[in-house]
Amino acid sequence: MAFSSILVPLEESEILASVLATALVFAKRYDSYIEGLCIRPTLAGAVAVGFEGGAAALSGTEEQFEQEQRMRADRLQAVFQAFVAENNIPEAQGNTTKLCASWVEDEASGIGIFGQRARVFDLTVVGRPMPGAMTPAMNTLETVLFESGRPVLIAPPTIPQDIGRHIVIAWNGGTETARAIAFAKPVLREADRITVLSVEGGMVPGPSAQDVKVNLLRDDVAVDVREVPGRRSAADAGDIILSETMEVGGDLLIKGGYTQSRLRQMIFGGATSQILANAEIPVLMAH
User: Fold this and answer.
1) CATH superfamily of domain region 166-286
2) Which terminus of the chain, N or C, has less C-beta within 10 A?
3) Is-contact 73 53, C-beta < 8 A?
4) Separation between Cα atoms, residue 273 and residue 189, nearest integer Å
């Protein structure tokens, strides 16, 4: 069964409702099990691994830190339980193959547990990191992307109404995007339309967009190719991918994550960084 299990790392953020709603779109489509995973670190463990808020907590006591983490977990549990109740999602019982959900709380030293736990799920849904006081952490997204070996669905700031009717593949010729396409096969086969988008200047040596189209046509779906000429930087390619996706009416973007190294993208910019900063539709990534 496609995407039969979905992990949602739970963080307090302004777009948590969108994260849960994005997960629910896939869960309803594939009768998935949704696991809401909350980390409740100890002070010693948080400081040791640099968990967000751990260093600041050094000015307080271990008891104060753990009380704050308990309160944070309680708030997240209340949000998750309200989401489950509002959508009439049954509580998970055994190895059911129907839509269900469960809350899981782990006293872990840091966010590494998100990436580890995600290894046994078909899909992990996280929020798009954004500027602000309460937004999803980039560390969480990158931990799951690099440590799970599984696909990551990045939820936009606003709740999507549907996902995967018109899919845009940001093809750059690389292995990361090839892997993302392979993970996305179930939703690609159900799409009404697929656009394979390539941007000159954002490509690496590899098959062409036309080659990707030929392969996808074997699944008997409608596939178009959209090639944008002109040499440009990788960062500019990211902006063009987003604008072209909006222009054709895409509701899901598929892309490989960090074809260039994270360090290079931090210094020089890159398509992945631009997309993670600005995407207004869900993005399915793999590394």
Assistant:
1) HUPs (3.40.50.620)
2) N
3) no
4) 28
